[in-house]
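@channel anyone free to eyeball this complex?
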Amino acid sequence: MKVEQKPVLPPRGTVVLEARGIVKRYGHVVALGGADLELVAGEVLAIVGDNGAGKSTLIKVLCGAVVPDEGQVLLDGAPVHFRNPLDARKRGIETVYQDLAVAPALDIATNLFLGRELRRRGPVGSWFRLLDKNRMRREAQREMDELKFHLPSIDSAVEKLSGGQRQGVAVARAAIFARRLVIMDEPTAALGVRESGQVLNLIRSIRDRGLPVILISHDMPHVFEVADRIQIMRLGRRAALTTPQRHTMSEVVAIMTGAARGDEQTSPQ
Amino acid sequence: MRLQSTGDGVSADQTPRRTADNARTGIMRQVLLKPTVGPLIVLLLFCTVFSLATHTFLAAGNLSLVVQQSVIVGTLAIGQTMIILTAGVDLANGGIAVLGTIVAGRLVAEQQNPALLSLLFALILCTGFGMTAGLLVSRLMLPPFIVTLGLLGIITAITRLVAHGGAFPVTDDLLAWPGNAIAVGDTSITYGMLIMFGLYLLVWYLLTQTAWGRHVYAIGNNREAARLVGIPVQSRLLSVYTFAGFLYGIGSWLALGRIPNADPNALQNANLDSITAGVIGGTSLFGGRGSLWGTLIGTLIVAVLRNGLTLTGIDPLWQDLVTGILVIGAVALDQVSKGKQR
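replying in thread with the prediction:
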């Protein structure tokens, strides 16, 4: 099967995050052999690829969990060197993990602000470290409304929510604190159809608020539903860059598995 | 057949009924779901039963005695609860407190050191042992059960070595100060009681009104999630164990005030008693759930039970039996409520 190749038009927005020639080796295993990525303002960029294609490693490099052996990561055009996820977070990059990273017994507002609690203003906050629970609750509610994510009550414990709502809490937390972009690693992997729909809606809301999103997913229908562009990884490199309009799902799968050639599969550029 | 065919219709039919049900039982459920309400009801129940069974139970002097008897375990249980909330457990707390009493007692009674310095030394020593447990648990990732079991053995041995098989009567005013009382009517309120209530207030504030407290709950609830959201899990754990050690040091001062004799054989069951208090008070041994007031109520339940059974002339052996039932009941409730929410 030969897929017709046209170069994807250079996107009009500015490049927020860029990775150039990322190499990561684990002993003799080359996880990434010169991978590239550009994330443009205002888009959802999906990254797809077979197991071992290097998409998770690439994402770990971008969110600071893995330090690359070679290559460069640029945020807003300036080189950055993340040594751990906290470095990336400090630069405005938030990551949502596949395994629901929430504290089930704590309420929604607490979970949203976990690790970044707001204290009262003035001496009560700075000397007595008193939390501003009302402000956190209000802001949590406002963010949820803005994301059009509807929950029973901001005070209910996360364990009383459905799986989709729980993942929604994790996504919303990333959306609240991300200043530059949000990375989502298989956010719908553990969810049913309807629950996945809620999370996909959230992804759109985040993009519409102006934050670009990198979405890693195995699920082609989900990718085609929300992605503006799709980056196909194969053998530790970018095999192709396309859009849901340009290629069909089966064509994307063909490039993923090597049955068809992607535009960047051969010869380093 | 009908049930199978109209799957959707059935659920649509039931939804309004279910919400109406929820609205009706809403307030009841809200109250009952408050984790301290169950233990409070049990406490009031016991108080009612004993005040009906004997005239002496409700006497002001007796109630004061009940609280005085629970001051030491009550204080140790504060540290225990903080540690259980992080999904840990502390078997060494009684041992640490006893070492504190022996060290302070010997420094003052045998070597005529200034009481204030001796007390401070004992406090620092207890805090240091708490910190040791914290370092082993947070840095080496050892299970708290094993760490504190090992520490209990080490500390008990050190205690006996320091004590040379003797006890140290305390005559110093400062060391025995928590046992002094202010008389309010017929009731005597000891300074030890005030210290304990003060510590409960302080730790309640830290646990519920500060970010530190939220982190403690989050670590016990889902440690990996706590790490991922950027909570410094190791240093929070270290601070919990160290602070608990400090509280055990205060506990040893309260113990000297209660019984002015530093005895290496005292408080042998304090570790298990403090766990019992927390569990009866509704704190989950799985971590992340519970309230400090529940622990205070749990401590009082055990003390009321002991006192009431003695006053009614029932064999004190029954006390352990009832406490055992309460512990198992509390844990069973915890499991059932968790099962429902899943």
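from a first look: DSSP finds nine helices and ten strands in chain A.
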